[in-house]
Amino acid sequence: MERLSQLQINWGKILIWVGVLTWVPYVYLIISGKEASLFPFLALHLIGVLGGIWIKKQKRSKNINPLPSTGKRARPIGNILILLGTLAWAPYLILHKYYGYDVDITPYLVVHLTGILAGIFIRTGLLDKVLERFRMLNEGLKKAGYIKSNRV
Q1: CA–CA separation, 56 vs 11, rounded Å?
Q2: What is the rounded radius of gyration, in angstroms, for the C-alpha atoms of the chain?
Q3: Which end of the chain is less crowded, N or C, counting CB atoms within 10 A of the terminal residue's CB?
Q4: Can you say whether residue 33 is alpha, beta or left, with left for phi > 0 and alpha for psi between -120 and 50 degrees?
Q5: What are the sequence ranges of the domains in the chain?
């Protein structure tokens, strides 16, 4: 039973990566100057990411590959950032689809990716791990004499 649950979690991860990597051929087409409709890529992105998240949430047990423990505030803050990153598309869709304006997608994409990635980093504890590595590196450089501390 545990093997089945782990397999389903892995399928969830694969679906998420397929959804994320959907944008590679789209960006390639845009860079090469070819016309590419956004909607098939967006549909595949949403199916992969949302489907993968749903599978992982349904099959994640407390004993198999649990989420790293984070502080009490980290998960809600991460969830809020992910939500805000997703909601970044609301003004774009309203301006582009409802009002018919030709709107540049770049600022909305930047806010979306910033919110999603920051939320994931905070929610899963990856930010804590990265900061701890930087602290360890800093301490090692101080001990080796490469950095002199100016702190009082």
Answers
A1: 8
A2: 20
A3: C
A4: left
A5: 1-66, 69-152
Q: Decide: helix, strand or coil at residue 149.
A: coil
Cβ-based burial of 101 (10 A; exposed 0-12, middle 13-18, buried ≥19): exposed
The model's pTM: 0.63
pLDDT in tens, 22-75: 989 988 998 999 988 888 888 899 899 988 888 887 765 554 545 555 567 888
User: How far, in Å, CA of 12 to CA of 7, rounded?
Assistant: 9
DSSP 33-56: T----HHHHHHHHHHHHHHHHHHH
Task: Identify the DSSP state of 105.
Answer: S
100 against 53, higher pLDDT: 100
Token reading at 149: 């501390």
* DSSP-derived 3-state class of residue 115: helix
Residues 6+ apart with CB under 8 A from 50: 19
